[in-house]
UniProtKB/TrEMBL annotation:
Keyword Nucleotide-binding: yes
InterPro entries: CDK, CDK20-like_STKc, Kinase-like_dom_sf, Prot_kinase_dom, Protein_kinase_ATP_BS, Ser/Thr_kinase_AS
UniProt source species: Glossina fuscipes
PANTHER family, A to Z: CELL DIVISION PROTEIN KINASE (PTHR24056), CYCLIN-DEPENDENT KINASE 20 (PTHR24056:SF171)
Positions of transmembrane segments: none
UniProt name for this protein: Cyclin-dependent kinase 20
CDD domains tied to this protein: STKc_CCRK (cd07832)
Compartments, as annotated in UniProt: Cell projection, Cilium; Cytoplasm; Nucleus
Amino acid sequence: MQEYAPSRYKILEKVGEGVHGSVFKAIDLKRNRFVAIKKVVLKNKFGNISLNTVREIKILQLVNCEYIVNILEVFPDLIGLGMVLEYMPDTLYGRLKNDSNPLSRQQVRKYTQMMLMGIEYLHLKEIMHRDIKPANLLINGNDILKIADFGLARLYFPEANNRLYSPQVSTRWYRAPEILWGCQKYGPPVDIWAAGCVLAEMLRGVPLFAGTTDIEQLALVIRTLGTPRLNEWPELTSLPDYNKIRFPNATGIQWDKLFPSCTYGIEIDLVANLVVYNPRNRLTASEAIKHDYFL
């Protein structure tokens, strides 16, 4: 069936399917250029307006950064809305899956820097993305990486200490430990943990923590980083799910053994300062882009 779009756009093919909508490649007949059209539902299964859809559109309209995908137009669709976005032919996920053409160390550094600069922009705007992962990091024809898919993004308010957020966010492999332990009072450091996992995946070629359940995910984190020390993260015992399950004590794995192909310790040092248990001890995005790795 032909997907509906204004006559200005000609749908060419479906290129993606996500939790929050389908994405199609189209051509803008007026400007003779490719665009991406994301079809999103306006109402949820209960017949209410989908807040995720509204938030995604409003946030994309609010931001203006070269490392965040541009929204060009919004139009009504048969089932909801169509978001016209700049066309990005590749994803970091696709690049990582291309075994015949692995990322060079220069590309890893460049993509990491672009990712962190996009995250810095969002955090300065008091926006949490909450789903940083390779599939949501798009790459255009000029090899520029941009953050996309803001269906889980939220404004956060540093002064609102009692504001609660859902722990059912982000893709499990990139989910921060405070969220895995049920925390609902979290902030931008959840994006920093995810960014560290993405960098580690680019360096290793495989995900850093690839659990199939939340419990296994947490077990993998503990086995890798070691049992968290309460003197380094005293708030841990107050997290909602802390006492629900006990894990064996672990000493952790040395970082250089996790990255055997890395000959420079500086890139491992950045990972080690992003993938940190206590959210307060993770580098901010602004601090991370000043790391010696990028000199």
